[in-house]
Specification:
By secondary structure, the protein is mostly helical. Helices cover 82% and strands 0% of the residues. It is built from two helices and no strands. It is rod-shaped and about 40 Å long. The model has no long low-confidence stretch (mean pLDDT 96).
Length: 57
Amino acid sequence: MKLLIWIGITVGGALGGWLGAMLDHGNYMGAWSILLGGVGSIAGLWAGYTYAKNYLG
């Protein structure tokens, strides 16, 4: 269960940071990148937990 949560946090944070950087013209340390990276991490945590709970018992 922990592994899936960490994978969700990592992938969600990376995708959120990437999307934020694209909104901020390639600036990976910009406000959008940091904000969307945090939102993506929280969404990944939720997705990893939900997947583990529903499919792994």
